[in-house]
Design brief:
Layout: H1 21-28, H2 30-59, H3 63-70, H4 77-125, H5 128-134, H6 136-175, H7 179-226, H8 228-233, H9 235-288, H10 294-332, H11 348-352, E1 356-365, H12 383-393, H13 398-404, E2 407-416, E3 420-425, H14 431-439, E4 446-451, E5 454-455, H15 461-465, E6 468-471, H16 491-500, E7 509-510, E8 513-514, H17 521-535, E9 539-543, H18 551-567, E10 571-575, E11 587-592, E12 595-598, H19 601-609, H20 611-616
Parallel strand pairs: 3-10, 3-11, 6-9, 9-10
Antiparallel strand pairs: 1-2, 1-4, 4-5, 7-8, 11-12
Helix pairs in contact: 2-4, 2-6, 2-10, 4-6, 6-7, 6-10, 7-9, 7-10, 9-10, 16-17
Length: about 625
Amino acid sequence: MSYPSAKSLSMHANDASKLTLGQLLWRQQRKALLTVVALNLLTAAVGIGVIAFINRYFLAANPDTSALLAGASGINDRAWMYTSAFFALIILQLLTTFVSQFALTKLGHRFVYDLRRQLLKRILDTDHAQLEKVGSAKLLASLSDDILNITSAFVRLPQLVQGTVLTLAAIVYLSLMSIPLTIVMLLWLTFVIVIGMLLVNRVYANLLQIRGLQDSLYQDYETAIFGHKELMLNRHRSRQFYETKFDHHADDYRQKIVLSDTYHLSALNWSNIMMFAAIGILFILATAFNWANQATVTSFALTLLFIQSPLLAAVGAYPTLQTASVALNKIVSLNLAVYRADFATSDIDKLSNWQRIELREVGYHYPTAEPTTVDTAGANPIVSSNINEMAIALGADKSDHVAQGFGLYDINLTLNRGEVVFLIGANGSGKSTLAKLLVGLYKPDVGQVLLDGQVLTATDYTDYQQHFAAIFGDGYLFDWLQGQGDSLPDEAIVADWLARLQLSDKLSIAEGTLSNTNLSQGQRKRLALLLVIAESKPIFLLDEWAADQDPVYRQTFYEQIIPNLKQMGKTLFIISHDDRYFKHADRLLQMHNGKLVELDSNERLHASQDAVAHLHSL
């Protein structure tokens, strides 16, 4: 059986509450799903055939099987035929059950595989600003817990499908023997299922809250791991975090999961006991009110016992599907990019032929700050308000920034090929935001970005971003070298720069893979520069790169490495506060309160003599 490739999960967040796992399966893998349903119908038909065979030849008065059932020493040929037919049906049921379960399991795990690949690819394709808005805790929760919950649902999905199909087939079979008893049984089962579903709905309500608390717990885990040094140095803060934040979320999670499991177990116990009650009701109706003979009611009882286990398994599997639906909707609510199978890449020669980048009247504002309360989604009260506080501290108008968040205004910038441009500015002035606008990680709210005179459209940004290689202050250090395009970097160039960056005795490189990244912060920045050089991009953006270097290597960077890179034809955009080295820049720019200016000769001289005094004079 073939499985079509999954289509994109391009639903909007406002459709999340309407999306179920079954709907998504039907949209994406309809043909495979219909095949699985057909196999399960065949399995159900064989199962009912086994029951019918037992009812007709083992329970009913049949002269051909009486000797066999009585345990007589002599068994006639016809009895042997019935026995052989019975075991043939059992073997057929075993085979059809295995095939249908295997097909459904394979379908489910193929779906999860596609979903996992799509989710990571969509993260890779999503705008950086949107990922910052979502936050790493929610992304990690979706990549781990949400995918795991969907996988668990597909593990239980065969039980749900087979239990449902077998129950429906059994009802059809029983209606052929006694319609009144079948109606009574249906009414009773409806009553049992309605009560069970009310309990299951309580499970679902708790699962929604549990999923929100999982985001909070992931945020706490990040705090414990990435803030470990600071927490070790301040045990009061450590205790406050552990007892107030983490323990609050963990205890809420515990209470909700206990409630969820309690309702789940109540639903299972209710369904299990009420199935036995159904058998009692059927015997009462048959014996006290003569609705059916003994053989018929016995067949009903046997059939109910036959479907009891699959039906209860189906009821037990339903909450896992509810959990999967919560997880699926959580993924949809992330508002990630629409799935595309390909990676848009640019022509390498085209990248090298650029001449000028312009930002014209560009403006960008961060989203409005959220209230400083911690909710079940794990909002950070410090992070949620710091943007406005920073803007107000810089002297900006309070009412404007509370309404729209801190931002950049009327940015005009031209970057020419081969230039070395330095950018200075106070903390919070907007330097890093401008850097992200320049490299295309942020898209401006107003204004235009032009490449060689052509205004960038939304579809041009992927190609535009490929012009840049960047080292951010919080950048990630990869453990392999990526050369130009898909190739490995030139080994001679790598060896040369490994020596220039004074890393030859710290690590080795084999087939592009680094032997060691466990280095000091300054050495990690040097290694990051090696990775950037290996990419052979035309423009380098270096955000406070020299801040982590010792004085000797800082001088080497400005007086040797920058000229070497310029000689290689690289364009350099460097955020720096090393005033004694400003002379190595072709141009000196300054950010202040979200606005950009280029310093003239007198201003540049003043900044070069004392950058601190210059910034204080603003």
